[in-house]
Specification:
- It contains 15 helices and four strands.
- The protein has one domain: Formate dehydrogenase/DMSO reductase fold (Up-down Bundle).
- Helix 7 packs across helix 8 and helix 8 runs antiparallel to helix 13.
- Helices cover 77% and strands 3% of the residues.
- It has 335 residues and is mostly helical.
- It is globular, with a radius of gyration of 20 Å.
- A two-stranded antiparallel sheet has the order 1-2. A two-stranded antiparallel ribbon has the order 3-4.
Length: 335
């Protein structure tokens, strides 16, 4: 009997996507808020707060993409062509944003241009990710084992709204990170931005939570039929609880870590809600995880290597955050 590696790969892929959303989410959020900084010194401090760790955060994007290709090739073959356009936009924006990191400190003559590149690149990349998420939730046009829709099928009112929602959500994570890393007036400004992003995120989560089951009867039945409505009620109840805690933490001038932690909790519950809505489908409405999986031998071969590599990635990620803990300083830059 061959061990079923599909649940293992599901956990690996889910972990990779989750950590990417959280870790690259907050540094993209800092980029979204970047052009609202009052001075050049403030922008430099904001960039310095994420400079040591931003590129390592994108490790999880690579792991997620390669994990999808290796472990669930049928899903990769359907999903990626369906969202080529927003993925292309996202990758170009991330490249532009990465270049802005380098040239912000090296090209003093055009620093204003690179500042805008960093801010707009972060915003566009986030919005594109939200469009991909929205397109994934609403599903794709599939015949047999192939995507048969058009390039712009992913552009719908729902996916555009999820793009906006993710910009607000990443902005909340970014503001929480800035509250943790900055001091004085800049921290106060980050709190004001966190409050705005939080209220926008809360409204957006509520709309998406109602819009999603309205689009799909199976999802509505999963959440609102008995006894599921009782079994799953802790998810919205905990979301409401952490929303109250987040608002109180943002308003408390002595709270520096908790606004970021509660924002992470809100993202975690939203991620859990999506997983509950769609599991066990990996191509919504068409293929389950087991139907889209690669052969058992392939999953075992790749899984053994990944299970050795994953702890290394987690350790060096944790170590980098530990080394660069504390407040951001203007004299410590990205050089």
């Amino acid at each position: 009997m061959i061990f079923d590696f599909v649940p293992v790969w599901t956990l690996i892929l889910g972990l990779a996507v989750f950590l990417y959303v959280l870790l690259d989410g907050f540094d993209l959020g800092v980029g979204i808020l970047y052009n609202f900084a009052p001075t050049r010194q403030a922008r430099t401090l904001m960039m310095n707060s994420i400079a040591p760790i931003w590129d390592g955060n994108e490790t999880w994007l690579v792991l997620g993409g390669l994990g999808l290709l290796a472990a669930f090739p049928l899903a990769f073959a359907i999903i990626i062509p369906a969202v080529y356009f927003p993925i292309l936009v996202m990758l170009l924006a991330l490249i532009f944003r990465g270049a802005a990191f380098e040239f912000h400190f090296r090209d003093q003559e055009h620093r204003g241009f690179w500042d805008h590149a960093f801010g707009y690149g972060s915003t566009v990349a986030t919005f594109a990710q939200g469009v991909v998420l929205g397109a994934f939730i609403q599903g794709f046009q599939v015949e047999g084992r192939h995507f048969t829709g058009s390039t712009f099928d992913c552009i719908t009112p729902f996916s555009l709204f999820t793009g906006l929602a993710l910009v607000l959500g990443y902005g909340l994570l970014g503001a929480g990170w800035l509250i943790l890393k900055l001091e004085g007036d800049l921290q106060k400004k980050a709190r004001a931005q966190a409050r705005f992003c939080f209220l926008g995120t809360l409204v957006a989560v509520g709309i998406v939570s109602l819009w999603t089951p309205w689009m799909d009867g199976d999802i509505a039945h999963r959440w609102f039929s008995w006894p599921n409505i009782a079994l799953l009620s802790p998810v919205p109840l905990l979301t409401a609880l952490f929303a109250v805690l987040e608002l109180r933490a943002i308003a408390n001038p002595k709270a520096e870590l908790t606004p970021f932690l509660y924002a992470i909790c809100l993202f975690s519950l939203s991620y859990l809600g999506i997983a509950i809505s769609l599991f066990p489908m990996i191509v919504p409405h068409h293929y389950t995880l087991w139907q889209a999986a690669s052969s058992p031998d392939t999953q075992i071969f790749l899984g053994v290597g990944t299970l050795f590599l994953l702890p290394v990635i987690l350790i060096y990620t944790a170590w980098s955050y530990w080394v660069f803990r504390g407040k951001a300083r203007g004299e410590i830059g990205y050089h």
